[in-house]
Amino acid sequence: DRASHPGVEGRIALTLDDAPCSRPDASASMVLEVLDVLREFGAKATFFLCTDFVAGHEEALRRLIEDGHEVANHCQADRSYAEDTEEEFERVFLEAESICERLRASALADRAGVVASGGNSEDAPPRRRWFRAPHAKMSEAMRTVLSRHGFTNVLTDCYANDPWIDDPEFIAKTMLDLALDGSIAVIHMPERGFREYNYQALRDFLAGLQARELRAVTLSALQQEAEKVVVVGEVGGAKSSQDDSFALVDPSKTTSNGQDYLARTSSAFSIGVDAWSNFSVKTHFHKACWRALSVVGHRRHLASVFPGSLCFYDRASHPRVEGRIALTLDDAPCSRPDASASMVLEVLDVLREFGAKATFFLCTDFVAGHEEALRRLIEDGHEVANHCQADRSYAEDTEEEFERVFLEAESICERLRASALADRAGVVASGGNSEDAPPRRRWFRAPHAKMSEAMRTVLSRHGFTNVLTDCYANDPWIDDPEFIAKTMLDLALDGSIAVIHMPERGFREYNYQALRDFLAGLQARELRAVTLSALQQEAEKVVVVGEVGGAKSSQDDSFALVDPSKTTSNGQDYLARTSSAFSIGVDAWSNFSVKTHFHKACWRALS
Fold first, then answer.
1. Helices 593-606 and 280-296 meet at what angle, rounded to 10?
2. Which segments of 254-323 are extended strands (E)?
3. 176 and 153 in contact (C-beta within 8 Å)?
4. pLDDT tens digits along 390-412
5. How would you class 122 by CB atoms within 10 Å of its CB: exposed for 0-12, middle for 13-18, buried for 19 or more?
6. Which residues are paired to 152 by β-bridges?
């Protein structure tokens, strides 16, 4: 707060999250471009590193530190650690910090009087021990570890929800509206083909700061200015020129009860540790948004808005889907190679308990270390499908780039099918058994639901259908299993396609209970969960395949799949689309326009 810390006047701290780049390929990184734009505007920044992303980018990070920026600890992977035990979190936290330390040590020499956190010998403040909790989720165990090692968890008062809003003009304007003296701004690191729009947002934001004579500095530099007017008082508090303040206390004198090193009073923008521990504020906000979207997003309401990808089968046109929904799980099998983190076997047990089958959309970068569990999954009658390699958008990849990674991902899926099931036994490799398994369909789900013309062309060329949903509860952002299950049950109808994200130990683990409750609710309603291929087999029994690019059915008010062998070559999905179908339009999703506008409205309200 400038009133208590006048030294922060004219300064904000600029921070970039999820640095350096989620892919080890240096050509995907935009670190050097970001450094150029920071240099152009005379700005400095703190880069919060997911240290699993460091390999392949060490040289760019050393240059970053030499340029006077600083690196800080964002833990290893881009996942929540709030459900880890204290020992588990401490291990990965310290491993991440050791990588940060090695980068600092390799970039700067103490003998030159240059502090390893960034800056130069003339103006660099002593390095602070910063941490930012991934997904802003904290736990008592995490607070205890941070307190033990003298770290401060840092959030923000200047942010525009840029992972969900891909409009650089909106991002920059929103952040400029929020930026005040002493603010801490957050923007996520741009990469080629993933959040690349944030590069332009960063440039526009810096230009706006310059016009307002606000200087972007590192967190440590901002804290150095703030400390000039802070009188450190008793343990656990700080005295300042007025009570209406937000002041840092002396880290060396913090209490041992896991409190952040902050004196929090009425006018400060501060996210309470208990609120964030339970994710309650953010969860309630997303619940309210999702309730509103669910009302608007009923099948019939959205039909005219979103012509396109397969999202459900209408019972009126496909009466054989009665009593069935397709269950799909995204981001399978587990984002970590450690088999002990996986919950695939637990999910298989609960599916077996309720007599359910499912289609698992695989991020094939996640497969290594989980092959045996995936083979068992297929042998149990489930199917695996292509969710591409990494959990990122491919909408900005070229056609050649996307085709390469798409086919590499599909080859992994094929190898898993081949290793699990033998054709000679009459068992189809997509899941199921010789008695009831339908022929394998070629399913794809675009990560982050973002599609491009290049992606559509590739899918058409190889005979794949992009599949979305009419039954979903925004579970990556809402960690309440009761809400997730109830919302999905409210949306589930005959012929629905349900989506829930794969639970892991310590990451979206609440989705295990949500899945169990959802399946119990379906059972009570006599709705059977089946694979996508099984649902499509039932739907096809009442579809008469017609001309190229269309399908005839018992009425026009339908959503029918056409014969893939007779599709046109212009990149259309293999779907006959008419008025009542809930289908996500390829053009709308290409621009992410509808979802973007929704998140913009939410973020304006939250701001």
1. 140
2. 262-264, 308-309
3. no
4. 988 898 899 999 999 999 999 99
5. exposed
6. 130
